[in-house]
């Protein structure tokens, strides 16, 4: 056995996958998973667990894989996570569990993420579901938003016997897992829906098309008998650059572009989705969301540029995502910044003026500040521009809830330890509190909120 390297994972050929929306990575089969599990040293002082925000007992579940007790492995993971098939696919393991693995000191870390994904997929294919609470405790809790924060909070509370209702603004549950992350990284009906069904099987009810702050307010929910509320409404409000021409037809926020593709099924040929897919697309930004938008545009048939004002080393996206985007043919225009979007006489994008940049002294984030290179203006020939510059929480809930304090960025202020906000009985967590972050951090916050609500209702 090669102990220094991970068992390689099979992936779709980049030339083929650049034209389809099927999942890029195939994951491990049973033999590959057992072989990879053998690389785990089962450390007593498990550093990998310290790197996992939801503290999954990693050595214990990997030991079960070694014994081929895959159901046992799933039960261990389920104690800490409601969404293992999702996390096994999208968590930044390189900076979390795998980043801490002892094997990584002299070789590659154990492929913890791929093993988690294997166990979750195996459980789903074999009809194994998490265990339900034996009886209800008579308390009613409302959860706002069905993203990873809301689902984790609801799942944990249901396991403790609470009657939980999730209120979701969109017509499908899942938050960013459903409307943001593309199908080729996270299959919707095969994976996300199934994990949501697992949460429902614990007794959680999900009410869609319910916009809290418009359909009903938090105060009204509490008058209706909900004894506590958890806000997991995310950070879905996109930012724009404020440059001339940004109002043109053919300029999207990455969120809108990905939502149209995911929820309105633009990726399916038999759906007539109103998305101007574009022939030449510029995606402005260098994070994971930019990579997702670029790879989606590529699959919809466009020639795609990533336009980013800093250099390769500063790209905030995961290395794996950048690597996949390059393999598939996305063109990187680094050290480049847009200054204006040109608009034709019908109001459509007719190109994007840009300047080249150079890196100067480090700024407050520690990254070298990009400065404009003199006389470097040029026009990029594109017909579609997708802005991927980050998002912030929508102020709808905070502006309609008496006594709920927010920061100057409109993030809800809540305790990291138990999600308690400034309003009694109201808890919050995930992107709504931190601003745009990650799935696993949102899940951690959801779990903390569930613990906080449980303690609050026990003491009440
Ligand atoms: C395109 C994209 C790709 C990403 N890729 C990754 C990745 O690979 N790995 C990773 O770890 N993270 C990734 N992230 C970040 C991650 O998805 C988020 O950090 C995470 O989903 C936050 O979870 P949440 O539950 O706080 O919010 P969300 O997932 O945003 O869910 C919030 C939910 O609340 C609902 N809602 C909002 N307002 C209301 C209201 N007033 N009433 C009722 N419901 C409401 C929304 O419709 C939504 O369904 C990505 C994000 C995006 C946008």
Describe the structure.
The strands form four sheets. The protein has a five-stranded parallel beta sheet. It has three domains: 14-125, Orthogonal Bundle (Fumarate Reductase Iron-sulfur Protein, Chain B, domain 2), CATH 1.10.1060; 140-236 and 392-459, FAD/NAD(P)-binding domain (3-Layer(bba) Sandwich); 240-389, FAD/NAD(P)-binding domain. The chain starts with 13 loop residues before the first helix and ends with a helix. With 460 residues, the protein is of the alpha/beta class. Helix 2 (30-37) packs across helix 4, helix 4 packs antiparallel against helix 5 and helix 5 crosses helix 8. It contains 18 helices and 16 strands. It is globular and about 70 Å long. The structure holds flavin-adenine dinucleotide (FAD). Flavin-adenine dinucleotide is lined by residues 90-91, 144-150, 167-170, 175-176, 180-181, 210-213, 232-234, 236, 258, 288-289, 292, 394, 396-397, 430-432, 436-440, 442.
**Number of beta-strand segments:** 16
Relative helix content? 25-40%
Query: What is the CATH C-level name of the largest domain?
Result: Alpha Beta
Structural class: alpha/beta
CATH superfamily of the largest domain: FAD/NAD(P)-binding domain
Query: Radius of gyration from the CA trace?
Result: 23 Å
First-last Cα distance: 57 Å
Q: Order the strands across the largest sheet as they lie in space.
A: 3-2-1-4-16
CATH topology of the largest domain, by name, is: FAD/NAD(P)-binding domain
The total of helices stands at 18
Q: List segments where confidence is low: pLDDT < 50 over at least 5 consecutive residues.
A: none
Bound molecules: flavin-adenine dinucleotide
Strand content: 15-25%
**Domain module count:** 3
Structural shape:
globular
Major pleated sheet: 5 strands, parallel
């Amino acid at each position: 056995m090669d102990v220094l390297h991970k068992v390689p994972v099979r992936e779709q050929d980049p030339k083929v996958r650049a034209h389809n929306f099927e999942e890029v990575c195939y994951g491990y089969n049973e033999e590959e998973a057992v072989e990879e599990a053998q690389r785990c040293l089962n450390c007593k002082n498990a550093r990998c667990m310290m790197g996992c925000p939801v503290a999954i007992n990693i050595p214990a579940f990997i030991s079960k894989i070694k014994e081929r007790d895959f159901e046992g492995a799933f039960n261990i993971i389920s104690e800490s996570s409601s969404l293992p098939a999702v996390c096994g696919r999208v968590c930044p393991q390189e900076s979390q569990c795998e980043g801490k693995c002892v094997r990584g000191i002299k070789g590659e870390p154990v492929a913890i993420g791929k093993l988690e994904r294997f166990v979750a997929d195996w459980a789903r294919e074999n009809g194994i579901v998490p265990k339900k609470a034996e009886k209800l405790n008579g308390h009613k809790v409302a959860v706002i938003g069905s993203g990873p924060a809301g689902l984790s909070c609801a799942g944990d509370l249901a396991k403790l016997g609470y009657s939980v209702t999730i209120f979701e603004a969109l017509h499908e549950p899942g938050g960013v897992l459903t409307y943001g992350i593309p199908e080729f990284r996270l299959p919707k009906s095969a994976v996300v829906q199934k994990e949501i069904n697992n949460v429902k099987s614990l007794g959680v009810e999900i009410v869609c098309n319910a916009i809290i702050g418009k359909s009903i307010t938090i105060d009204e929910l509490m008058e209706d008998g909900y004894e506590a509320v958890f806000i997991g409404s995310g950070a879905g409000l996109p930012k724009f650059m404020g440059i001339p021409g940004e109002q043109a037809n053919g300029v999207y926020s990455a969120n809108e572009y990905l939502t149209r593709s995911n929820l309105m099924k633009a990726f399916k040929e038999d759906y007539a989705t109103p998305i101007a897919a574009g022939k030449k697309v510029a995606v402005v930004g260098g994070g994971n969301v930019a990579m997702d938008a670029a790879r989606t545009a590529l699959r919809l048939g466009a020639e795609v540029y990533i336009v980013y004002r800093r250099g390769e080393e500063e790209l905030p996206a995961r290395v794996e995502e950048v690597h996949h985007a390059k393999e598939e043919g996305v063109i990187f225009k680094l050290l480049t910044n847009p200054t204006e979007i040109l608009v034709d006489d019908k109001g459509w994008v007719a190109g994007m003026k840009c300047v080249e940049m150079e890196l100067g002294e480090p700024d407050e984030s520690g990254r070298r500040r990009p400065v404009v290179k003199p006389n470097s203006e040029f026009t990029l020939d594109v017909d579609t521009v997708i802005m991927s510059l980050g998002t912030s929480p929508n102020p709808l809930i905070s502006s309609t809830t008496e006594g709920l304090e927010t920061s100057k960025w409109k993030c809800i202020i809540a305790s990291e330890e138990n999600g308690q906000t400034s309003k009694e009985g109201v808890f919050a967590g995930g992107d709504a509190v931190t601003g745009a972050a990650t799935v696993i951090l949102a899940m951690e916050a959801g779990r903390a909120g569930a613990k906080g609500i449980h303690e609050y209702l026990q003491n009440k």
